Predict the 3D structure of the following.
Amino acid sequence: MKFPEGFVWGAASSGPQSEGNFNKIHQNVFDYWYATEPGEFFQGVGPDLTSNFYNDYPNDLQLMKKAGIKALRLSIQWSRLIQDFETGTVNQAGADFYRRLFATMKATGIEPYVTLFHFDMPADLQHQYGGWQSKHVVSLFEKYAKEAFKLYGNQINHWFTFNEPKVILDGQYLYQFHYPKIVDGPSAVQVAFNINLASAKAIAAFHQINTNVGATIGMILNLTPAYAASEKPCDKEAARIAELWTNDLFLQPAIRGTFPSSLVDLLKSDHVLWNATGAELDLIANNQIDELGVNYYHPFRVEAPDVSPKSLQDWMPDIYFKEYQMPGRIENVDRGWEIYPKALYDIAISIKERFGNIPWFVSENGMGVSREDRFMDDYGMVHDDYRIDFMHDHLVELFRGIKAGSNCHGYFAWTAIDNWSWKNAYRNRYGLIRNNIHTQEKTLKKSAYWFNQLSHQNILPPTNFKLP
Ligand code: BG6
């Protein structure tokens, strides 16, 4: 299986999960949450040090190079770059750090793909205004984005406004796995709109400011194709609505500039539709992404809910669908996620057929496994054949999608070096490179050698790959 010429082999990460809090002047919501409730995090490990990328990046980048990583997706932390959120004044130390980092990446031959927001709302903006519930925060995000474009426009060719907006809704406003752990369906609806608006505003600003010919701007969406548990009409209807809510709510505005009309009708008849002005809708209509990043980990199987959505109950999106655990599924038990590579083919075809075959890439895919020292040899190398199998099987499906004409131009593993997974901290390790978090010693896993061969040959190595 030879991938198309120029196919990008990369890895993804984020600022809050890798940098550590060195020289940061503001807390983001995770810093604040850890400071107030450290027991919420696996083994009490917080975001202070993470993988020490702030200090270690020159060495880390060299190691990544050895793993064949030619592009690295990372994020700027709003809480590091901006001194005064209201005015958008830059914090010089933060600005210098990212400039040095991007320059070192270029010198190392690793192309930066930069995301502006990866779950890390500044804590002050969450507390003062309610974070993404507030349109004032949307305008502050626009100011931050403008500063980033001005500062790094000549260094960056691939910008992304948001990482996984859906997870922001789920974590902060629906299912309580991110601070402030609110459960409020109608607020989640408004947040969904506000994030789409913030993304469009940043795109508009990019078009005004950017002078780097060829630079693009996109969005990173976690797509979880919704599959009905059965052929029963009620399960299929549940899957239809789940698909609209989980995927199309962000895909359609980002790519076509409109919201799915049947979802809008449903929210309207439930009296929970977002507040939006005509000018805001026009802005969204006129500012689309150039490329799409797709994070794919697992499918979303659904069945009809236990009680009718007409029952007297607080509005939540899942009054329309219930998650279904398919018996006999293959699962990454450590993370509780079904492993279903075929969904990547389905995503490829859906982008081709429903979303104009926009240029896209897999911006995250990977497997988080706990206690990886189980698989370590006497020399300290983790033999993570399960990760190789996982990536291999997903790439087979991706390849099928590309052969069928889908416009996919890259694959980024989550992640390069084991990093901090939010509430799960260092429980599940995703890296091609192991991090001993007690010593910060970083070593290549077997999958790093496999990925290196893949990246250099542009051909899928076998799963029974032997170490060189
Ligand atoms: C994606 C995120 O949701 O998946 C990452 O963009 C995250 O930030 C990754 O770390 C893996 O998920 P988790 O919850 O196991 O860390």
Q: What stands out?
A: The first strand starts at residue 8 and ends at 12. The two ends are 21 Å apart (CA to CA). The mean pLDDT is 98.
